[in-house]
Design goal:
Structural class: mainly alpha
Number of helices: 6
CATH architecture: Orthogonal Bundle
Largest sheet: none
CATH topology: Non-ribosomal Peptide Synthetase Peptidyl Carrier Protein, Chain A
CATH superfamily: ACP-like
C-alpha cells in the first residue's frame, strides 16, 4: 500500500471520480496506475478533464500536463509536489 499525503490523495480521488463518471465506469475499475489512454481518455476528453481540474484547483495548468503525467498516480504526485498549498486548500 502506498503512503500518500493528504493533497496527493485528494487529487487522486478527484481524478478517479471524474474519470469514472466521464467514462461511465464503476469507480473500482479506475486504477491510478493505468495510463489515461488505456482507461479510454482521448485527446478531446483530456481537454475537458484539464479544464475541470483547473476549475477544481482554482489554478491554470500547462496544457501538456496530462501527457507528461499520463496516470492518475503520476499526475497527483506531480501536482501535490508542485502546486502551492493555497491551491490545494481551495480545491472543492
Amino acid at each position: 500500500m502506498e503512503n500518500l499525503d493528504g493533497a496527493e490523495l485528494k487529487i487522486r480521488n478527484w481524478c478517479a471520480d471524474y474519470l469514472a463518471k466521464s467514462l461511465q465506469l464503476p469507480l473500482e475499475r479506475i486504477n491510478p496506475q493505468t495510463k489515461f489512454a488505456r482507461l479510454g481518455m482521448d485527446s478531446a476528453m483530456s481537454v475537458f478533464f484539464l479544464v475541470e481540474l483547473e476549475d477544481w484547483l482554482g489554478t491554470e495548468l500547462a496544457s501538456e500536463i496530462v501527457f507528461d503525467h499520463p496516470t492518475i498516480a503520476e499526475l497527483a504526485r506531480y501536482l501535490a509536489k508542485t502546486l502551492p498549498p493555497a491551491a490545494l486548500a481551495c480545491a472543492r
